[in-house]
Amino acid sequence: MGVSDILYYAIHVQELKSLIQWQTWHNPVHQRDPEKESVSLRICFDFLDKTSRSFSAVIQELHPELLVPVALFYLILRGLDTIEDDMTIPIEKKDPLLREFYKITEKEGWSFNGNGPDEKDRELLVQFHYVTEEYRKIKPVYREIINDITRQMGNGMAEYSKKAAEGTVGVDTVKDYDMYCYYVAGLVGNGLTQLFVESGLANPALKDRKELQTSMGLFLQKTNIIRDIREDWDDSRRFWPREVWSKYVDHFEDLFKPENEESALNCSSEMVLNSLNHADECLFYLAGLKEQSVFNFAAIPQGMAIATLALVFRNPNIFKKNIKITKGSACQIMLDSTQNLRKVCEVFRTYVRQIHKKNTPKDPNFLNISVACGKVEQFIESIYPSQDPNALVGGSREQLDPKEIQAREEAKWDTSKKMVSKFIRVVSTITRPLVYMMSIVMSFLFVISCMMIGTAWMFGARFDVAVKELKQGRFSRPDSDTARTIVNNYDRGEL
How many whole angstroms separate alpha carbon 309 and alpha carbon 304? Predict the structure, then answer.
């Protein structure tokens, strides 16, 4: 943790508390045991850590039935994505690789070293035989699901790669944008849902709700595309559809010009609106997950996505650099998202209200964004009403027995005592790190002060003169005559 982090958390104590709580209080529902795994499987999990630390953490807490299938599913799609992203592979070679990749996963000993030397996940494909070795060990029904999704995704990626090779830059229509997001993320939602249902850890009805499965992936992908606009543009990639940005600027690069800031923000608002329309369906989907680790796995990314959407909404920094939510906020979201659907709904409500608060009538999308925010809140209200129906009509008509009233009061008192105890534990948990950080800050300031005073002394500063004058009660700046008298009263040594 750097000095800037220390200063940040000294001011944002709530985020510091969330960070400490996640590190100390979070207990995984299930824990992976590397000692019981084969060498090749441990290598697969090492690659999982290297390719995505955030997804790796939630995958490794999954139910044992799904742990390995989901991990291998991720690595296979990451390998496919690594081939698709590599612009050094000629389209004549890339096209068949993408389309036939689902067959490759069944081949014993297959690996690929044709990626460019700078490709980030090149080593995964060089040692892909470890993945295929473990893949052949999982249940046939899981392999069938993963193969089908890999086949569809490979064909979709091949089509977009061919367009890029032919000189077609970016995405033209919103329909094309939705289709692209479906191929790279919506299909992942479809595949994971089938794995969840097949394992018996999700409501079978989810299998027939394709629109809910797809929304889970599209909400994540579209939010990331909005956030990463600057990074993608620097890498000569453009995913915002022409149908959207052409309403606000003449050329895509005009979005990054300071004089077009207002137009760029309005354009980003329409992109946020497009993503926000999936939010309520994501909550609907989460309601169908029965097992806690599966719920955590699906809920955490969705909580991060809604927070990121609130961060990028009408934020001009997205056109200047890649921005992310803070670690403290991320830890609070993870704490809330690993409890239950009600807490996840509260996360969504919090950030939807942030979006609504930042919304402005000057934005041509103002009304539609307000409606989209209201739609999410309405869905949450329909499953978790904020008011007790009895309270709206003046309370229950039945008179409570005095003993029952006393029991309720005692229960309230017990709850209050528990809350106080919990508060004391939280305070005691955060006090020590906070004192530690403040000590570091004070020590740092002390060292800097000593260095400055020492430097001044070496250049001839007369601190003895300053001390004597202060002892005589002269605290204000003297006039020129008095200053001259003071100078003449003291020996200036070599000067």
Answer: 9
